[in-house]
């Protein structure tokens, strides 16, 4: 439990990180550092995106699997790391 | 012995050949034993005529060669050919060739005649050949469609009285009426069965899909409202405790951290060259072009930059983009410094990449500037250090001179003459402070680095007020016994924040370096000496590592306690806190190192400029004893200053004669630069480089508490005022 907290702090302490969300496999946020409305919005939208991306990768090659997804926009970058049961969303504002 | 004549009717030998039989003794004598010296493959043996004559003489009638004695004696040449005739072509197992012509003919058979090329005068049309049937007509027969029987033709007619009455046709199913047809049903014949030994089958992976929907029972939904699902409290707690969350972090964190670091270091999607708005072509190119460089720009301006030397150069910290990337260039006169009041000499010239011939802005000051810096929090404020020892403040958003096409502005403030130094200022740095424009008490602070005057004190000064009333705040006394010293200050601060109200526990450490190569590490803390005045402490340590003027001290942008110094003939890397000496010292090189700086995007890479105009790229991860890459002879003059561009972290400007931009990405490494003596030119090239192993960043989150510090400074100022300093 403390490990989790400590890791979260470490990620949060990186330069430019705006928020971290942990979402379970159904798309419901479990832990977050943003406010509730943004969290819910991110979780719902990104969950669908991750499912789509994962199914794309697996359709092309069933032995393959999605490991990391980065969405870069003009204003910031969203990094999604999927796992077996959860996935981790980090929103970063790159310093340049 | 007379040779045996062939009894059989084999073809008699031609006249040049004489069949011989040789006894084994003779064979041994002449070295032509059957199947040993002569074989089917090499049947030829050349015998010396003298040997044969000798043999004949020796053995007279017994000799095998006696029948040919006369011929041998008459033989014109020295060697005769003896041929081993395995197949007894001419009756005996050997034959002797009697004439030299035959011998030559046998030994070197003539070339076969080349057949003459037949020309056909007129190419006749090929005659049609007879048809050879290969079975294709059977296939055609099988495929063709023919009538198997004649077409049946039925004619129907009705009674005349029904002529013209509509007729109706209908269908009838034969199965409806009994016995209307006869069928022969198929049945399984038990006598005849084929067992299937092999079956083709295929498999396909089909994703499991489940679709479901929900709909209200209403006929039409006027509006819908939903809210997101959320977990209950206990669910959340149980989830968080679960081990799977730990697993998630274990598996995911390294990737995430690496991605975050990458993002933080640089923006890989930004193309700096495009962003600079490079021109398609320029016509004013100067300077050498090495194979890796491409000239892009020439900045030239006859009016302002003629005969001037660039003393310092800086990128504008925030203006970035296609139109207005700006490089500010401080110009000094090559000739001796004179205060020339008649013509306000140009201090700083701003060039933009979109318009290389006309400067965008001029900042004037009465004497030549030797160093300048942009204020990091407000890039419109520029502080410049002058050759006379005064410090000027410029504001680049003013426009005093409306007549010219080029906007120009005069300086805003200057330091007091009596409290500033007398020698040229070599470096200026901004302290990391909050900035307020209107010169209130917690105003900006600058640390002006100065060359020491003739007195043995060297004083960095901190100014607080605008406009002729600047006075130094802190004086650092260096009693080191050198008469005339020119030291170049380069401060990087580390500041801890527990301070009492009165005096500093705010600890500032400074690295000084001196012209003779000594590096001094001092505490900026004020102490009281005998007379009760405050002055700086003695230096904590000093090292003489460089043999010449130290021109660069710079903190690494990634590690807060690693410092690069370069000067003289070598460079050194220091770690703060480890004060026994440099942690890395380079071997001495042949030319002087005149400039150096860290790379902003790769932690172990730094650039050293040399006196002969080349730039060395050092990569500490690869080797510490030699540079990773040398860009040799970029310019013909020495490089005096190297500066990275913080906006994109990719460009590096080095000067004073040449200015470079370095762009490095994860996989590419570009150099951009420009040159000036009377003009500035802009180079660009790229070369591929292997990416290093990723370096972990250390983040020490020690941040100054700005407000408290400025409070402290206010207090300090008050105190010093009270003391009359």
From TrEMBL, chain A:
Its main location: cytoplasm. It comes from the Eukaryota. InterPro entries: DYNLRB1/2, Roadblock/LAMTOR2_dom. Signal peptide: none annotated. GO terms for molecular function: dynein intermediate chain binding. One of its GO terms (biological process) is microtubule-based movement. GO terms for cellular component: cytoplasm; cytoplasmic dynein complex; microtubule. It is found in: Cytoplasm, Cytoskeleton. SMART domains: Robl_LC7 (SM00960). Belongs to the GAMAD family. This is Dynein light chain roadblock.
From TrEMBL, chain B:
GO terms for biological process: cilium movement involved in cell motility; inner dynein arm assembly. Residues 105-124 are annotated as: Disordered. One of its GO terms (cellular component) is inner dynein arm. One of its GO terms (molecular function) is dynein light chain binding. SUPFAM superfamilies: WD40 repeat-like. InterPro entries: Dynein_IC (IPR050687), WD40/YVTN_repeat-like_dom_sf (IPR015943), WD40_repeat_dom_sf (IPR036322). Keywords: Cytoplasm, Repeat, WD repeat. This is Dynein axonemal intermediate chain 3.
